[in-house]
Design brief:
507 residues; alpha/beta; Alkaline Phosphatase, subunit A; 9-stranded mixed β-sheet; 4-stranded antiparallel β-sheet; 15 helices; 32% helix; globular
């Protein structure tokens, strides 16, 4: 992986702190936010769903039943262009919990906290530190297990990110910032027995083969969304029962996009576009629809501002709600190492166009990734159908042995991002504009994606991957060198346990 570079030393070397608060200024900020404020300040509640794209009924999906989330949208604002800064959880969460791009603070490699003791560079703090300094109680709950801490998954070490797990643990009258983390839409999927979805009615994107395995897998994901909706409804009911709903600003969003082959871990729309719904009784008109571009790093500074806490100047996130809203002309997202798969991809997304830069164009999209291999049925399906020559040209794009250095898509005419316009003479001006935006962003934010990780991290990660791989293969009755066809047979049995193999293939 190259020469080891300490991430904190790198920040100092590139002078990244230029333009940030100095330590004395930082202390002044903390003193300012601890000043006395009215006790009727609003509570802030973040409902965070794992691996969720805007595949809800209120976003136009006709198959899913999401009455609770739909009602939440009807009572507040539904955002149509909200994006995370990463297509995988730990970098994304590291970003929206600090208001900083994960690439600026050395938190861009997925789950790097497993291998080192990296801490945030000064003056960067979690947003919970600012809430706490302002007198807020902070808590994080795992689903509806009110005594169990919820998911953090930050790519850095923190001693005390939250005060507790339940807003009822706070002092009487104390305002709170709370998170409830819902894992329902993360693989492995758990189906909804109350409202099963017919896989034959599923509308697959054109980059997916129309096959029973693909249809059933997608239907299972949609059923998980329905299970999620029930849990969200229970959480909102508890907020109401505790008499807190009228003075609580509720954010509902996904930590990254849907867990499908060309989505999670990639910078296409399916990986970074997420639902965002905000309800603020008496302040947001019911049924509002917002088409403005919003980045997840905006959620932190926006929540602080709505609570009467001035966000520190160093934060890269913007205020996206209220009289001081700062609209975006574009959003940026980044993908780096995911598990043991080394990669570096960046994108710029405007209202109409998406520009993607592949820093490792000599590597295929499908370079080995244990998580994808072991949890995504369509990964094996694509491999088998590619070998058999049964994929359409649109489906073959993802199976290419190399990638273009640049990709450009007109999302207005090509929402599935299949027609790369980077070499089209008609779009060279747009290409150059977005290329320049990304170049400037890389420089201005001191993007650390080009700095090699400690080689030892790769050694440890590879050992972990191999151990897990060997165990999983044995549990599934597969050989260590199982072919894509063997994997596909496994998935056919798993997804259709009561169907003979020949019926699955003909279904």
């Amino acid at each position: 992986m190259g020469t080891s570079v300490n991430r904190r030393d790198f920040l100092k070397t590139v002078g990244w702190t230029t333009g940030l608060l100095t330590l004395p200024e930082y202390e002044t900020v903390l003193q300012a936010v601890t000043s006395k404020v009215p006790d009727d300040r609003p509570n802030i509640l973040w409902l965070i769903a794992e691996d969720l794209s805007p595949d809800l009924a209120c976003y136009g999906n006709p198959l899913v039943k999401t009455p609770n989330i739909d009602n939440l949208a009807g009572e507040g604002a539904r955002y149509t262009n909200a994006f995370t800064t990463s297509p995988v959880c730990s970098p994304s969460r590291s970003a929206f919990m600090t208001g900083m791009y994960q690439t600026s603070i050395g938190a861009h490699q997925h789950r790097s906290h497993r291998y080192d003791n990296y801490t945030l560079p000064e003056p960067v703090k979690l947003i919970t530190d600012y809430f706490r300094q302002a007198g807020y109680f902070t808590c994080n709950c795992a689903g509806l297990s009110w005594q169990k801490p919820g998911k953090t998954d930050f790519n850095f070490k923190v001693e005390k990110p939250y005060d507790g797990t339940d807003w009822m643990q706070r002092k009487a009258g104390q305002p709170f910032y709370a998170q409830i983390n819902f894992p329902e839409t993360h693989r492995p999927f758990k189906k909804d027995p109350d409202n099963p979805i017919d896989e034959n009615k599923v509308e697959l994107p054109p980059y997916y083969p129309d096959h029973p395995v693909a249809r059933r897998d997608w239907a299972n994901y949609l059923e998980c969304i329905q299970v999620l909706d029930k849990k969200v409804g229970e959480a909102l009911d508890r907020l109401e029962e505790d008499g807190l709903a009228d003075n609580t600003i509720v954010f509902f969003f996904g930590d990254n996009g849907r867990p499908h082959v060309r989505c999670k871990q990639f910078l296409y729309e399916g990986g970074i576009r997420v639902p965002l719904i905000i309800r603020w009784p008496g302040h947001i008109k019911q049924g509002t629809i917002v088409d403005d571009l919003v980045s997840a790093i905006d959620f932190g500074p926006t929540s602080l501002k709505l609570a009467g806490i001035e966000p520190p100047n160093y934060m890269q996130g913007r205020i996206s709600l209220g009289p001081e809203t700062q609209k975006r002309d574009f959003v940026i997202a980044a993908r780096d190492r995911c598990d043991g798969t080394v990669d570096r991809i960046r994108c710029v997304r405007t209202n109409r166009f998406k520009y993607i830069r592949n820093y490792f164009p000599n590597r295929p999209y499908t370079q080995f990734n244990l998580y994808k291999k072991h949890d995504y049925p369509v990964w094996s399906l694509l491999e088998v159908l590619f070998i058999e020559g049964k994929l359409t040209p649109q489906q073959e794009l993802f199976m290419a042995c190399i990638r273009p250095e640049e990709e450009l898509y007109d999302l207005q005419s090509d929402p599935y991002e299949l027609n790369n316009l980077s070499s089209d003479p008609k779009h060279q001006e747009t290409l150059k504009m977005l290329r320049d935006i990304l170049d400037k962003w890389v420089e201005d934010t001191a993007d650390q994606g080009g700095v090699p990780e400690d080689p030892q991290i790769g050694v440890i990660a590879d050992k972990d991957v191999q151990k897990y791989y060997d165990t999983q293969q044995k549990e599934r009755g597969l050989s260590l060198n199982a072919s894509p066809a063997e994997y596909l047979k496994f998935w056919q049995k798993t997804l259709f346990p009561a169907c003979p193999k020949e019926n699955v293939e003909k279904k």
